[in-house]
Design goal:
about 150 residues; mainly alpha; 8 helices; about 75% helix; about 0% strand; elongated
């Protein structure tokens, strides 16, 4: 009877949960767009980005897939108010850190594109991921998840 101790969440919980679902769905769309690029699409990229694209090992694409698809599952679990949402968001966050870690440590992106252009959005993605991990823990402690 674990469900007896579940507390009704406030309206803002649902706003955050829906925003998380939209965010994660956009990540899945971006992933699908990237892996679906044709040779012609890649040829239209600036030379520096083409170089990075060609360097990318399959495991980095795999980390990207884990980050977005497990994140989407986490957002669905959040909407379903499941306690196992936090581990999903942790896995998603770790996968994103691995993906971006490779990008920044193993490619010339900072030299070719510049930190001002290359860093802000990945940093925002990691921040959102960390906030979702925190929020899942907060919701669990408040008894909003079962």
């Amino acid at each position: 009877m674990a469900g007896l101790n579940v507390v009704k969440p406030p309206v803002w919980f649902w706003i955050v949960a829906v925003a998380a679902l939209i965010w994660e769905a956009l990540g899945c769309f971006a992933y699908h767009s990237q892996v679906g690029m044709s040779a012609a699409d890649i040829a239209r990229l600036p030379a520096a980005q083409q170089e990075i694209w060609k360097m990318m090992p399959a495991w980095v694409t795999g980390a990207y897939a884990v980050a977005v698809w497990v994140g989407l599952l986490g957002a669905i679990a959040l909407l379903a108010r499941k306690t196992w949402v936090r581990p999903l968001f942790i896995v998603s966050l770790v996968a994103a850190v691995i993906q971006f870690g490779w990008t920044f440590l193993a490619t010339p992106i900072l030299r070719t594109v510049g930190a001002a252009q290359a860093v802000p959005f990945p940093a925002f993605i990691i921040l959102v991921g960390a906030l979702l991990v925190w929020f899942a823990g907060y919701a669990t402690r408040r008894g909003w998840l079962s």
